[in-house]
Amino acid sequence: MQINKNVNFLFLYMFLYILRFLYETVVNGHLIMLPILDYWGYLILGCILPMLALLTKIDEKTLRKSLKIIFILLLFINIMGMMNNQEYILDANGEERVRADANSGLNTIVFSNMALNLIIASLLIMSKSRYKIFFLIPIGLAVVNMGIAGSRGPILQMILIAIFFGYKNHEKIKLKFVIPILISLIGIIYYFSTKYDAFKMLTARFTESQTNEGGSDYSRFMYLKGGWEQFLNSPFVGDSIEVKPYGVYPHNMLVESFMSLGIFGGILCLVILYVSFKKALVQLKKEEIIWLVLIFLSNLIVTFTSGSIANNFKFWNLAAIILTYQSTKYIVRNESSRTY
């Protein structure tokens, strides 16, 4: 197991959160609106146990094989998602129907994130493949699914991680490949946005205002404001794991940390976010782990827009890999060029 001071920050933070959970379970369990066992399941089974498992040594061969396996799984998920939601492409009757029905099967943000991850995996495998043109098919499928999901977050994540990647690898980027891909993506989005109602919903959500009391922006602003006010009311030990009286998280993991754990927990969360982001940027030039870094950066962005401490599994699991990889250098790089 690879342990260093950065990983210690992670587990100290989780220890504080477990203490908060114990207090809420014993003292305030009747006030928590989401079943308390769900929180425990998210934290232990989704975050802590996988983090421990991912602190083992991982070599380059394992990472490369994992990318191929993850690509196949993501392709399967996106194909099944398309089949399950094809009725929305043909006849979507407003945002409420699409997002409510989608949430009953697969949360729209998760659905859209699976599409974003497929784009990342496809582009990276495509860059080493002799059959590049075939990877435009899964990329197109992913873009369609992002439109159906109607979630803005993954669109913004895709733009930002493209900027991060381009900045760190600008000397490797070949415009003859990038330009056709960008034109294809724009063309797909434009075609579906003019033809199908499900895509029009995505455009409407980008123009939504937080002053509109019927919109999700307004609700999230109120959650964020309520969470910060709860921290100010109890700045040293925190107040609750939920925003009162809504019974939800603030949709911002940093604010949630201050709200739940007080000033020390909030500062500790800020340190983790800063250190993991800094180390992730360093790893963007390392071929064998770049796919995990890009997925990690997309989930880092989520922590400020819709993330929660207990259910942001991918952030915590990938943070364990990113922090350990940089400081222990347990992955031996192979500089030879490979073709997928």
CA gyration radius, whole angstroms: 21 Å
- Please give the largest β-sheet: none
Mean pLDDT level: 79
Structural class: mainly alpha
**Fraction of residues in H or I helices:** over 70%
Low-confidence stretches: 89-98, 327-340
Shape: globular
Report the total helices: 14
Q: What is the element string, with H for helices and E for strands?
A: HHHHHHHHHHHHHH
Can I get a quick summary?
The protein has 340 residues and is mainly α. The protein is 71% helix and 0% strand.
Show the helix and strand layout:
Layout: H1 5-26, H2 36-53, H3 60-84, H4 86-90, H5 95-105, H6 108-126, H7 136-149, H8 152-168, H9 175-195, H10 197-206, H11 216-233, H12 253-283, H13 290-305, H14 313-328
Organism: Flavobacterium amnicola
Keywords: Membrane, Transmembrane, Transmembrane helix
Protein name: O-antigen ligase-related domain-containing protein
Word description of this protein:
The protein has 14 helices and no strands. It is mainly α and 340 residues long. Helix 6 (108-126) packs antiparallel against helix 7, helix 12 packs antiparallel against helix 13 and helix 13 (290-305) packs across helix 14 (313-328). It is globular. The model is unreliable at 89-98 and 327-340 (pLDDT under 50).
